[in-house]
């Protein structure tokens, strides 16, 4: 089976969860049935949201450094379990011959898996991801209409909750994330995409939400399994 490269560390817990989901979602009866993978978990990559909306350090050189390691390891494709890093997708893809699995496409495939092919979709994510319109543009091209948390909900609920997960407080992140997701559902979202790989970790720390959600960590893992199995 082909070797998967995983460009991670953004954050480290999300990367570890991606590897866990890659294992759990693979139909396997023995070690040899699983997807060979090389993980580069490099938390030194500059903050992606700060780079996009606050003039912070450009993360692309660090992202390319990780890609070079994966190329040298003999990987055949790359998965990046960080949504905001996909704001530099074109720069990364043009710099490597390896295909990079796009996390928004994986999320769209997961919506289809759940029987949702159009309509209004809620998208939660970092301020950087939402400001770049990563989901709004790519899902919009597939016929979806995306709605996102209000400015005050981002400041009061989503952004602090993402920080809690990065600080290993998943349980503390659940109440504000669940409140933000419920608000999107109340505004008409058929499903809510958890478009930051910290968000599924927080949502998993409490009771399941009573409407469809897309765990982008699991969605990307499914896409990677599909690639590895041809």
How much of the polypeptide forms β-strand, as a percent range? 5-15%
Average pLDDT confidence is 98
* Uncertain stretches of 5 or more adjacent residues: none
Q: The biggest beta sheet, please?
A: 4 strands, parallel
**What is the SS-derived class?**
alpha/beta
What is the straight-line distance between the termini?
9 Å
Total domain modules:
2
The name of the CATH topology of the largest domain is Rossmann fold
Kindly state the percentage of residues in helix. Answer: 40-55%
Describe the strand arrangement of the main beta sheet, using strand numbers.
2-1-3-4
Order of helices and strands: EHEHHEHEHEHHEHHEHEH
Put simply, the count of helices is 11
Structure summary:
The protein has 230 residues and is of the alpha/beta class. The protein contains eleven helices and eight strands.
What topology emerges from the helices and strands here?
Layout: E1 4-8, H1 12-25, E2 37-41, H2 48-53, H3 60-72, E3 77-79, H4 89-94, E4 100-101, H5 103-113, E5 119-124, H6 127-132, H7 134-140, E6 144-147, H8 151-166, H9 170-186, E7 191-194, H10 199-203, E8 213-215, H11 216-228
Parallel strand pairs: 1-2, 1-3, 3-4, 5-6, 5-7, 7-8
Protein described:
The protein is globular, with a radius of gyration of 17 Å. The chain has 230 residues and is of the alpha/beta class. Helix 10 (199-203) links the parallel strand 7 and strand 8. The chain folds into two domains: 4-102 and 218-228, Rossmann fold (3-Layer(aba) Sandwich); 104-215, Rossmann fold, CATH 3.40.50. It has a four-stranded parallel sheet, with helices on both faces. Strands 6-5-7-8 form a four-stranded parallel sheet, with helices on both faces. Helix 1 (12-25) packs across helix 11 (216-228). It has helices at 12-25, 48-53, 60-72, 89-94, 103-113, 127-132, 134-140, 151-166, 170-186, 199-203, 216-228; strands spanning 4-8, 37-41, 77-79, 100-101, 119-124, 144-147, 191-194, 213-215.
């Amino acid at each position: 089976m082909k070797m998967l490269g995983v460009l991670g560390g953004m954050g480290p817990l999300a990367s570890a969860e991606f590897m866990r989901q890659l294992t759990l979602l693979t139909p396997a009866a023995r070690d040899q049935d699983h997807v060979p993978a090389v993980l580069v978990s490099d938390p030194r990559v500059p903050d992606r949201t700060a780079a996009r909306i606050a003039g912070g350090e450009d993360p692309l050189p660090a992202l390319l450094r990780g890609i070079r390691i994966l190329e040298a390891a003999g990987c055949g494709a790359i998965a990046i379990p960080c949504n905001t890093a996909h704001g530099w997708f074109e720069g990364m893809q043009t710099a490597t011959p390896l295909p990079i699995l796009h996390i928004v496409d994986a999320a769209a495939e997961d919506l289809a898996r759940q029987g949702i092919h159009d309509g209004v979709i809620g998208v939660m994510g970092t301020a950087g991801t939402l400001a770049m319109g990563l989901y709004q543009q790519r899902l919009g091209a597939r016929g979806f209409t995306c709605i996102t948390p209000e400015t005050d909900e981002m400041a009061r609920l989503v952004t602090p909750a993402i920080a809690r997960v990065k600080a290993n407080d998943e349980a503390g992140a659940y109440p504000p994330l669940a409140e933000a997701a419920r608000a999107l559902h109340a505004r008409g979202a058929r499903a809510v995409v958890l478009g930051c790989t910290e968000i599924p970790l927080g949502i998993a720390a409490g009771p399941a939400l009573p409407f469809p959600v897309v765990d982008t960590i699991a969605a990307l893992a499914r896409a990677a399994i599909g690639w590895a199995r041809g």
